[in-house]
Amino acid sequence: MTADELAQSIRNKHDKLETDCKQTVLAVELVALQMKLAALTARVAQLERDDLERTQTQDAKHERPIKPR
Length: 69
Hints:
Helix content is 88%, strand content 0%. By secondary structure, it is an all-alpha fold. It is rod-shaped and about 105 Å long.
């Protein structure tokens, strides 16, 4: 193997490692975003349940007949 071939081989391996590293970073960022999305989705669902419960409670209060004094 000549010096030029060795240099080219090293450059190719370096480029592959750099690409692999970038792909790993992107994969980690994707997982982090998926976790954030899951947390936000759960939070929205909780807020919707809370809102429904509050609405039902308010509706129940309005449905009670007023007792005459």
